[in-house]
Every structure is written in structure tokens, then in C-alpha cells.
């Protein structure tokens, strides 16, 4: 089964395609009597059924089978054997890692998503603490372990059965009056539907495992609103559902995996001079924007064909790869030369950047090529996030002489941020305004002076330089 998977490694999250192990429930009917549901892999099911009945003592030779039919489409096995089944069958619940029998198929509690956002550091910390507390495994091996917590483990358990560890935690929490709502569950074992269903009943937000989930577990976690994480290692993991449940920012609050790109390629014809170099907030216009982006992103790139004019900026400067093709060429240049899989672009004359809105836009970058905010006037592509999946569409447009950014939209997967969604952060849509004429620049300067006189704070760290 091909599944959309995200790989988090050393602070960077990237989408990848991969397969997951299949989990298949098979209802077993023997002599017209429903005997059990076998949870198994979906191949060679007749061998599984025959072997199960043999090892349960119901058959001993091939002649004991009068009929054996498998309907894989409906997950059913119908078997007729010689003799009768015992009148009463006494189930023995195994460790959960062997025959995999379930007498009641689990049903999760459906919800839209995790109740809150958890940090990547919490996942790594809890998994490390679980390893340190796994005394049985360190002593003689052969044990599974699990634990729950937020930033620290509050409960943990060991058992030969991976499902038993969850039951032990659930029981201890019940008897001690500990709520597990919104917690992270870490486990050493594979994640199956039964484990997801149990976690859902406990109100768990995140399941993190050292190994893999099954395909049905992924589907159930999606429906249950649980963030599902697998293959947790020292600095990496894979993410299968509800990406929004994890905060991928570094400890300094910067958004990992995204580069801030400033576009400084305009002619400034209406201004009469290079507007990026006009005085603003104690420095030049472009310096203020650069400082804002440096507080949000770990890397900032300036796209310019005149790098000598911006030597005062301590960042990498890259040229257009398609000269004379406008803003689309600038975005293409920044994206193709970024060291990260995504870029957030702004023009060099946008004085009202809103960090909260920028972070909101960046938080929607997974599962799409372009995150495109909208104002009442329409799309705002100069204040948007582009993943590298946009590059083929950009190059096609540029090679065919198409300069408009919107020309790529039919060929990329777009996540729109509606005007109402933007208004929740920026009611006046100031983030999208730019300065094109001397009058607009003078109005901005006057507004700055009024803010300084009233004591209203600025959004960047340059407030103290305003009157320099």
C-alpha cells in the first residue's frame, strides 16, 4: 500500500512516498459457527486458516477438511471440518504478538484532530525516558514497553505482550485517577488497529513507536484524530497522520525546513529610486524586512540581479535564472537555490509583515505544493509559501514566456488561505500592502512617527532604532 508519509530528520520535515505493512481482519466461520477474527497479513490466507485450526487441535490431517473457502473481498473464511466443534470454547488471550485473535473488533472514538500541538522534543524525550525505564528488556530482553506523558513520562509499563502494556497503563491510570486526555503514548512495538483503538478510548493525542504502523492503523488514526509517528530514532521519525499535531519549530522558535526569500528585482519606476534602500525603522527598507524574516526562518535569501547594492545584508544573494521574467522568475530562483524544501516569499517593499500570519501560512505547507493566501481582491502570491514541487510548473511557464505567477496554479496542488482566515490575523490585510509611490512612502513615514509618539509597539526588534 502506497501512503503519504512525512520524514522528520534533524529539524527538517519532507514528504516521501512509501509502503506500510498491511493488516487484514479475517472472520473465521467453522461448521457454520463464527469462531474468531484473525488479524493477519493478507497473503496465503488458506495456509493461515489451516494452520490455526491444526494448532488449536480441531484438525490433524488434510482429510479432516471437507471445505475451505476464502473470500478476500469480504474478509471471510468459511470452513467445514469433520466432527463438531466443542460445545463451549474457552478463549485464552495471548500476548498479542502471536496468533493475533480478537473477539471484538475495536472501534475508535472519532474526532477531528489532536486536542493540542506537541513538540518534536517531547517525542524524543519520552522515547528516551521509556528506553531508560525498560528494566526487563535491559535485564533479559523479550519484553515490550510503553509509556505516556507530555514532556515527561508519568506512567510506563513492560510486558511480553505489546497490547498488555497499554492495558497496564490504562488500568494504573484508572486506579490512580490520572487522566490520559491529550497525552503522548510511546511504545516499543508495532502499531496495530487494536492499539490505536485503545489509545483513542484513552483520549491519546499522539502515538509514537520505534517501529512501524499497519495500513489499517493509519486509517484508524486518521479517523480518530490521532497523530501517528513511527520509526522514532535519535533525531528522526516518520509521520503518518495529522501533521498539524506536531510543532516542528526549533528551540529558537524558527520554522525549520523553510527559507525566507526577499524579492528585490523590481524596477521601482513609480518611486523614482530603489525603494528597497529607502530609510525605514532606523535603517533601510529591506533591512527591516530582513530582520523580520530572520526571526522566523533559519535561512533568509535575497533574490537580486544587483548584489553589489545589498552588501550590507549578511545573507546569501542569488540571481534570477530566467532574467527579465518578473516576480515568477524571482520566486523560482529563490526556491531552486534554497537549502530547504520550501520557501516563504515577500517583496522588498512590504512594510507590514505579520509574523503570526506568516507562521499560520507555513503551518499548512504539508501535503500541497503552494500555500496561497487571499485578500478581498484575490490571490496574494508575493506573500505565499512554495514547496519545491512547484519547480516543474514554474520552469514550464518561464520557458513558454509566461510571466504571471498565477499561470502555475492549474499544475500545482494549492492550499488556499481564505480572506476570512487571513482576517483572523490581519483584519485590514496590511500584510499584502506594498509601497510603490513617493506619496505612499511619505504616508508610511508619517504613520511610523505617529506610532513612535503613541508608544505603540512595532513587530520587529528594531523599535529602539526608529528615531535613529
TrEMBL record:
GTP binds at residues 263-265, 275, 320, 349. One of its GO terms (cellular component) is cytoplasm. It is found in: Cytoplasm. It catalyses: Mo-molybdopterin + GTP + H(+) = Mo-molybdopterin guanine dinucleotide + diphosphate. InterPro entries: Cytidine_deaminase-like, FdhD, MobA-like_NTP_Trfase, Molybde_CF_guanTrfase, Nucleotide-diphossugar_trans. Residues 446-468 are annotated as: Disordered. The active site is at residue 97. Mg(2+) binds at residue 349. The N-terminal domain determines nucleotide recognition and specific binding, while the C-terminal domain determines the specific binding to the target protein. Belongs to the FdhD family. Belongs to the MobA family. This is Multifunctional fusion protein. It comes from Citrifermentans bemidjiense (strain ATCC BAA-1014 / DSM 16622 / JCM 12645 / Bem) (Geobacter bemidjiensis).
Amino acid at each position: 500500500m502506497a501512503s503519504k508519509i512525512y520524514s522528520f530528520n534533524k529539524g527538517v520535515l519532507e514528504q516521501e512516498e512509501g509502503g506500510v505493512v498491511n493488516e487484514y481482519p479475517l472472520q473465521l466461520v467453522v461448521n457454520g459457527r463464527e469462531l474468531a477474527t484473525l488479524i493477519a497479513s493478507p497473503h496465503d490466507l488458506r495456509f493461515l486458516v489451516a494452520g490455526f485450526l491444526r494448532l488449536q487441535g480441531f484438525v490433524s490431517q488434510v482429510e479432516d477438511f471437507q471445505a475451505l473457502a476464502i473470500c478476500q473481498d469480504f474478509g471471510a473464511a468459511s470452513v467445514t471440518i469433520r466432527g463438531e466443534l466443542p460445545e463451549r470454547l474457552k478463549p485464552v488471550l495471548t500476548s498479542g504478538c502471536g496468533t493475533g485473535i480478537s473477539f471484538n473488533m475495536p472501534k475508535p472514538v472519532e474526532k477531528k484532530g489532536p486536542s493540542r500541538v506537541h513538540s518534536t522534543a517531547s517525542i524524543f524525550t519520552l522515547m528516551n525516558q521509556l528506553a531508560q525505564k525498560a528494566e526487563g528488556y535491559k535485564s533479559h530482553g523479550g519484553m515490550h514497553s510503553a509509556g505516556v506523558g507530555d514532556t515527561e513520562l508519568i506512567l510506563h509499563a513492560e510486558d511480553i505482550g505489546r497490547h498488555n502494556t497499554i492495558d497496564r497503563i490504562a488500568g494504573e491510570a484508572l486506579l490512580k485517577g490520572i487522566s490520559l486526555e491529550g497525552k503522548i503514548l510511546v511504545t516499543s512495538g508495532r502499531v496495530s488497529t487494536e492499539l490505536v483503538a485503545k489509545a483513542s478510548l484513552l483520549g491519546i493525542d499522539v502515538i509514537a513507536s520505534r517501529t512501524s504502523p499497519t495500513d489499517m492503523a493509519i486509517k484508524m488514526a486518521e479517523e480518530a484524530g490521532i497523530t501517528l509517528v513511527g520509526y522514532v530514532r535519535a533525531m528522526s521519525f516518520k509521520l503518518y497522520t495529522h501533521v498539524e499535531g506536531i510543532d516542528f519549530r526549533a528551540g529558537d522558535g524558527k520554522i525549520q525546513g523553510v527559507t525566507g526569500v526577499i524579492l528585490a528585482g523590481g524596477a521601482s519606476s513609480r518611486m523614482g529610486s530603489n525603494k528597497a534602500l529607502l530609510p525605514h525603522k532606523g535603517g533601510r527598507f529591506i533591512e527591516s524586512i530582513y530582520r523580520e524574516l530572520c526571526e522566523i526562518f533559519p535561512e533568509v535569501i535575497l533574490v537580486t540581479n544587483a548584489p553589489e547594492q545589498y552588501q550590507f545584508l549578511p545573507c546569501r544573494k542569488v540571481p534570477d535564472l530566467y532574467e527579465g521574467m518578473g516576480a515568477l522568475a524571482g520566486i523560482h530562483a529563490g526556491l531552486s537555490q534554497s537549502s530547504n524544501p520550501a520557501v516563504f516569499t515577500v517583496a522588498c517593499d512590504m512594510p507590514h509583515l505579520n509574523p503570526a500570519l506568516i507562521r499560520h501560512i507555513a503551518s499548512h505547507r504539508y501535503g500541497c505544493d503552494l500555500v496561497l493566501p487571499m485578500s478581498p481582491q484575490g490571490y496574494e502570491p508575493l506573500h505565499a509559501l512554495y514547496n519545491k514541487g512547484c519547480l516543474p510548473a514554474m520552469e514550464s511557464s518561464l520557458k513558454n514566456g509566461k510571466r504571471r505567477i498565477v499561470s502555475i496554479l492549474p499544475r500545482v496542488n494549492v492550499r488556499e488561505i481564505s480572506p476570512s482566515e487571513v482576517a483572523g490575523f490581519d483584519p485590514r490585510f496590511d500584510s499584502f500592502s506594498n509601497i510603490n509611490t513617493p506619496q505612499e512612502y511619505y504616508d508610511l513615514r508619517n504613520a511610523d512617527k505617529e506610532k513612535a509618539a503613541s508608544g505603540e509597539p512595532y513587530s520587529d526588534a528594531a523599535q529602539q532604532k526608529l528615531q535613529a
